[in-house]
Amino acid sequence: MNGETIVVGGGVIGLTSAVVLAEAGHRVRLWSPGEPGATTSAVAGGLWWPYRIEPEERVGAWALRSLEVYAGLLDRPEETGARLVSGVHAATPLDGLGAWAAEVDGLRAATEAEYTPGDGLWARLPVLDMPTHLTWLLGRLEAAGGRVERRTVTSLAEAAEGARAVVNCTGLGAAHLVPDAGMRPVRGQLVVVENPGVDTWFTHTGTGSESTYFIPQPGRLLLGGTAEAGADSLEPDPVTAREIVARCAGLRPEIAGARVLGHRVGLRPERAGGVRLEREELPGGGVLVHNYGHGGAGVTVAWGCADEVAALLDA
Ligand SMILES: Cc1cc2nc3c(=O)[nH]c(=O)nc-3n(C[C@H](O)[C@H](O)[C@H](O)COP(=O)(O)OP(=O)(O)OC[C@H]3O[C@@H](n4cnc5c(N)ncnc54)[C@H](O)[C@@H]3O)c2cc1C
């Protein structure tokens, strides 16, 4: 055994886990087939909020730990991609949230001027500019001595060969790699427009596959969205794109005329029973820790999950 820890997967979950492990003194190699910009994580809206993720009893602690880390990154937004932005979650009564909500500063019912009709929740939360944040994570990993290699694995046993430990952060890839029949894609489509002056975010997720949200990012405004369970096409659908713009313009009319800069599609890695974050002993004496299935909130929980990976490896 060579004493190395192999992290498989270069999205926000793999990169954050690799950073925590490298900074704790592990010799880390991260394997990923492509650049971080080619992952689902790069498509994410980047808003801190536990949406479409389970199990509820573990998510709160992971999310609060991540909130604490993001708060420490806000003074260098150009570098880290982290900013505090105010906004409204529609149809989200304060008393319907989990116990974690009591630990989040400043959550309150929206006033009529901020959002009507009723049931709007006002919050000031971290928003991560994901392409910038992923690049920053990569730099932080390399600064801690971690090595990044372009590599696709066909089995976790291949990664385990000779290594002390393997951390499986392959998101939707875990469906085939583990294999895990509980994994399914939840397709999300976004439209990227020139920002016509919107400086707050808004979400209304509803119960069907259509949602309405906008999130300001540097130089652009992200418009959403969809949550289509089981759909796996990465092709943006033009009709869906027009409907997204129309729904967002229904709330902020200036969005109707905003120049379209691009279209994005990502597949949320959702898992029946929720995130799999657990340790397995390997036959050759090594350790395998799974960290996948973060659904619609991988950015929101990445640091709490990474800390737990480190604890499981050292257990
Ligand atoms: C439209 C949209 C909006 C979203 N908005 C938000 C948001 O506002 N806030 C939030 O918290 N979350 C959001 N999410 C959810 C978030 O994007 C995911 O939960 C998160 O990206 C999952 O991260 P991950 O690292 O597990 O997966 P990924 O980013 O998919 O990374 C998986 C990595 O594993 C690699 N991999 C897979 N198979 C193999 C293999 N066989 N060998 C080697 N490497 C492999 C992949 O190449 C990739 O590098 C959104 C998602 C979508 C689609």
Automatic annotation (TrEMBL):
<dbReference type="InterPro" id="IPR023209">
    <property type="entry name" value="DAO"/>
</dbReference>
<keyword id="KW-0560">Oxidoreductase</keyword>
<protein>
    <recommendedName>
        <fullName>D-amino-acid oxidase</fullName>
        <ecNumber>1.4.3.3</ecNumber>
    </recommendedName>
</protein>
<dbReference type="InterPro" id="IPR006076">
    <property type="entry name" value="FAD-dep_OxRdtase"/>
</dbReference>
<comment type="similarity">
    <text>Belongs to the DAMOX/DASOX family.</text>
</comment>
<keyword id="KW-0285">Flavoprotein</keyword>
<dbReference type="Pfam" id="PF01266">
    <property type="entry name" value="DAO"/>
</dbReference>
<keyword id="KW-0274">FAD</keyword>
<dbReference type="InterPro" id="IPR006181">
    <property type="entry name" value="D-amino_acid_oxidase_CS"/>
</dbReference>
<feature type="domain" description="FAD dependent oxidoreductase">
    <location>
        <begin position="5"/>
        <end position="312"/>
    </location>
</feature>
